[in-house]
Amino acid sequence: MTGISREEVAQRIAADIPDGAYVNLGIGAPTLVANYLPDDIEIFLHTENGLLGMGAAPALGRIDPDLINAGKQPVTALPGAAYFHHADSFGMMRGGHLDICVLGAFQISQHGDLANWSTGAPDAIPAVGGAMDLASGAKEVFVMTDLLAKSGESKLVTACTYPLTGVGCVSRIYTDHAVFDVTPDGFRVRDLFGDNTVEVLEKLTGLHLQYSGLE
Amino acid sequence: MVDKTVADVARAVEGVPDGATVMIGGFGRAGQPVELINALIEQGARDLTIVSNNAGNGDTGLAALLGKGRVRRIVCSFPRQHDSWVFDGLYRAGGIELELVPQGNLAERIRAGGAGIGAFFSPTGVGTQLADGKEERTIAGRRHVLEYPIKADFALISAYRGDRWGNLVYRETARNFGPIMAAGATTTVVQVDEIVDLGALDPESVVTPGIFVDRVVAVGSRRWVQDGEFVGGVDVEGEPVNVETGAVR
To answer: Considering only CA atoms, which of B111, B84, B117 is closest in space to residue B98?
Structure first.
């Protein structure tokens, strides 16, 4: 089965982000999206630890420990950037000011429920960070993930079995096999990659998928 | 004359009683008041409840306080990090209580504490384990959970510059929890790189007004800043590096 690489998924997401959008890219794979944002438009990257107008990683020797992203990696601030405290930062999400966030996932249900913070393993050290705030706060929640977990199980499910991050919050899922929208009638295939077909995807996910032609 | 400055970090943390609730600023290493935490370790208060975003990394700062067995309970959003072995060990051994709070609810609960809000309804966490047992209400068609403010006896925070009235400015994303924790505690203790004369901070740019601050102590310039200019030469933990290879020196 052919699909596309993680970098290509990031590129596909970047192409869907409109000029002028305020965007939060979650820790991990979603940060790759930043590498593919077009130069000819302006997109504001928000990092929840208190920066709008986040730029690329600094050169060695120019790392500033006071200037980091939510993954605690060194970043830079673009001309026009702004710093703010945590209550303001999360008010930006909760208050509906942030247009898009891109998050990773363990599971996404056909109702748009998201599970991405805990596998529920009894010996795991729990940690949630800003995941729940992002999931419930951003106007649109995009998920970037492989379609299948390492175990081969579909991450798109009827109902999540892992602990939930948010209820009915996901609007679109970008995977290495296809792009899906969450609709009142379940997942709808929006784009297909490689030699994937709706039939193949239904077999992989075990779900009935909506399809009305590619967007 | 009002003078909130104190001579050293030992005096800055005087009077923290056993059993106190202490807010500690910082997000990871950025804005963590390491010198004040070290002074609190020396000071000896035990049975503490700590409110902080993380639960310490490596063996220094907050991790060292935990490692000394001084903390009974921690309220935080993200204890697990690649180098949070001190917390991880205590937690697995049942040596510390954890209240896990979504980061934005944590921030807003601290803000509410400082702003005199009795409680608030938040949409964050609805329908998840972290809202279990919490009062829920649908407002404007959306489900919310009731969240209560967090207040502390002491807040230990790190800022960039302060004056003797306690006015503060911060540096970049090291601001993080500083302004809201300053307001949320009965006694707010701030370490700054430098204490400046009254009037040296532009009133238009003061981030934390001095009314929220009780003690200010100067701890000297951070390694990557000299004479107010960023000079770099460190890794993200602030350790000196070879700027050609990135290797820690």
So the answer is: B84
Residues of A in contact with B123 (CB under 8 A): 94, 136-137
Chain B nearest CA to A115, separation (Å): 10
CATH number of A204's domain:
3.40.1080.10
Residue of chain B minimizing CA distance to A71? B28
Contact A132 B224 (CB under 8 A): no
For testing contact with chain A, the best of B134, B172, B181, B225 (most A CBs within 10 A): B172
**pLDDT for A1:** 59
User: Least CB-CB distance to B80: which of A127, A164, A166?
Assistant: A127
Note whether residue A92 is domain-resident: yes
Q: Do A47 and B173 count as a contact with CB atoms less than 8 A apart?
A: yes
The boundaries of the domain holding residue A79 are 6-211
pLDDT of residue B166 exceeding 90, the answer is yes
A1 lies in some domain: no
Q: How far apart are the CA of B98 and the nearest CA of chain A, in angstroms?
A: 9
Copy the structure tokens of residue A202: 């239904």
Identify the CA nearest to A100 among candidates A69, A60, A144: A144
Domain ranges of chain B: 19-100+151-221
Cβ contacts of residue A20 below 8 Å, gap of 6+?
A41, A42, A43, A44
Question: What is the mean pLDDT of the segment spanning A184-201?
Answer: 96
Q: How many domains does chain A have?
A: 1
Plot region of A95 (φ>0 → left; ψ -120 to 50 → alpha; else → beta): alpha
What is the dotted CATH code of the domain comprising B19-100+151-221? 3.40.1080.10
What confidence tens digit (pLDDT) does each residue in B186-245 have?
A: 999 999 999 999 999 999 999 999 999 999 999 999 999 999 999 999 999 999 998 777
> Percent of chain A beyond pLDDT 70?
99
- Residues of A with a known catalytic role: 48
Is A101 domain-assigned? yes
Contacts of A13 (CB under 8 A, 6+ apart): A30, A33, A36, A102, A142, A144, A174
Q: Band of the pLDDT at A202, cuts 50, 70, 90?
A: very high
Structural domain contains residue A118: yes
